[in-house]
Specification:
The complex is a heterodimer. By secondary structure, chain A is an alpha+beta fold. Chain A is 35% helix and 29% strand. Chain A folds into 2 domains: 36-171 and 259-274, Thrombin, subunit H (Beta Barrel), CATH 2.40.10.340; 177-252, Rod shape-determining protein MreC, domain 2 (Thrombin, subunit H, Beta Barrel). Classes of the chains: A alpha+beta, B mainly alpha. At the A-B interface, helix 1, helix 2 and strand 1 of A face helix 1, helix 3 and helix 6 of B. Chain A: Residues 127-266 form the Rod shape-determining protein MreC beta-barrel core domain.
């Protein structure tokens, strides 16, 4: 055909080969990840790297804690330095992992819904507050499902899924908002949203309701995908404004999601979607 | 051919290492731009074409294996600019040329991201600039030691596998 080049320019040739090899290998890697076996291998690699990073973060936090704590733990760390330091830290991490999984297992056994356990394999460091988990659409996940840790602390909701991975938007993200309820003797409805910081913000609390510090905030169940009773946090402080139509409050999530490596996804509507 | 395949595997491994391990660490360590740093070393020490392709695919691949707050187009632009700088400005194979190339590419990368991300609602300019300044420090630091390690690997590869790196 007349309009096709008969000879590839020399300048272009030196781009084509390396570009095609690297592009081909990367695309092959991505295509292989649509198969569960290879996807499991890459997810396990990333989960392992995430676990090692969390391990380092735990040690870093312990090393740079307050002066009082350092003095109190001084003798203990002297012992660690001189006697089997690495084995002590490994044992501590192993116990922490076992406790974490045991809590998840106990909570999972107590739930009437379908539950899926997943490992965290990556997290965002700027912009949106999100994490990546190693379960996806093939394992039955879909957007909107709640993600919990420990004894039922909700940390976020799934916003998108791939075949074997899912993105979870954390509650702290400013785009996150879930229907909530305040346990002050009766169930007072509100809406909890993120502020891109550690504290959350609860709005639309009726002015007539009494709101105080340390009151527990849970999910209300108004979202059909998020069951009621999942703990969001406790009231940290109340924004008093008698002229505003609603009361507002800051909510302390109590837990730090980045201390966990495994999460549980709840699916209250599994039977509906299975039909 | 072997060079290209080896570079592709390093590309995949450094991307996974950065998003899964480095991003787990506390501040300031999660800002270390390892993938960018290795890309600059590949562009300067190995092959500018490989380096340009590295950056062209980086944005997309980092978004797939984890999270990438920068725009994919900025990576493509930085790769093209880096390719030009490698031949016209930092053609010398000294450590100073490597650091100059890395510094220039990351500076342009920051400016482009600042322009594009400014249109985003969640964007915090002061936090972003603070993080980029710290990342630049790690980049320069890493390039200096990366140069030493890259030369060692070149000699080792040449002796063991007869792989020739283009001068």
């Amino acid at each position: 055909m007349a309009f096709l080049p008969t000879k590839i320019p020399e300048n272009l040739k030196k781009f084509i080969r390396p570009a095609s090899v690297i592009f081909g290998v990367v695309m092959l890697f991505l295509m292989l990840n649509s198969f569960s076996l290879t996807s499991r291998m890459s997810n396990d690699t990333q989960a392992g790297l995430f676990a090692v990073g969390s391990h380092v973060q735990t040690i870093y936090k312990k090393m740079f804690s307050s002066k009082t704590e350092i003095i109190d733990e001084g003798n203990h760390y002297k012992y660690l330095v001189t006697n089997q330091t690495l084995n002590e830290v490994r044992l501590f991490e192993a116990e922490k992992k076992v406790n974490e999984l045991q809590n998840l297992l106990n909570y999972k056994a107590s739930q009437p819904y379908k539950t899926i356990t997943a490992d965290i394999i990556a997290r965002s460091v700027a912009g949106e507050s999100s994490i990546l988990i190693d379960q996806g659409a093939e394992e039955g996940l879909r957007a909107g499902l709640p993600v919990v840790v420990g004894d039922g602390y909700i940390i976020g909701t799934i916003i998108s899924t791939q075949p074997h991975r899912s993105t979870v938007r954390l509650l702290r993200d400013s785009n996150s908002s879930i229907p909530s309820a305040l346990l002050n003797g009766k169930k007072v409805m509100g809406l909890v949203s993120g502020l891109d910081s550690f504290l959350l913000f609860m709005d639309y609390i009726p002015q007539s309701e009494e709101v105080g510090s340390q009151m527990i905030v849970v999910t209300s169940g108004l979202d059909k995908n998020i069951p009621s009773g999942l703990v969001i946090g406790i009231i940290d402080s109340v924004v008093e404004n008698a002229t505003a139509p609603f009361k507002q409050a800051y909510v302390d999530p109590v837990i730090d999601v980045f201390d966990y490596r495994s999460v549980l996804i709840l699916d209250p509507q599994a039977e509906i979607y299975a039909e | 051919m072997l060079n290209n395949i080896f570079t592709a595997f390093i590309f995949i491994l450094t991307a996974m290492f950065e998003v899964s391990f480095l991003h787990t660490l506390p501040f300031p360590y999660f800002i270390i731009p390892l993938h960018f740093l290795i890309g600059v070393i590949v562009m300067h020490r190995a092959d500018p074409v490989l380096g340009a392709v590295w950056f062209a695919i980086s944005g997309f691949f980092l978004s797939w294996v984890g999270f990438n707050e920068a725009n994919s187009l900025t990576y493509i632009a930085v790769g093209a600019i880096g390719y030009f700088l490698t031949f016209k400005v930092f053609a010398n194979r000294s450590v100073y040329a490597l650091i100059g190339l890395g510094f220039s590419m990351y500076f342009i990368f920051t400016i482009l991201n600042l322009i594009i991300l400014s249109f985003s609602d969640n964007f915090n300019r002061s936090d972003f600039l603070h993080q980029q300044f710290v990342a630049l420090f790690f980049l320069v630091f890493g390039l200096y030691f990366g140069f030493i390690i890259a030369r060692y690997i070149e000699h080792l590869a040449t002796d063991m596998f007869f792989i020739r790196i283009k001068p």
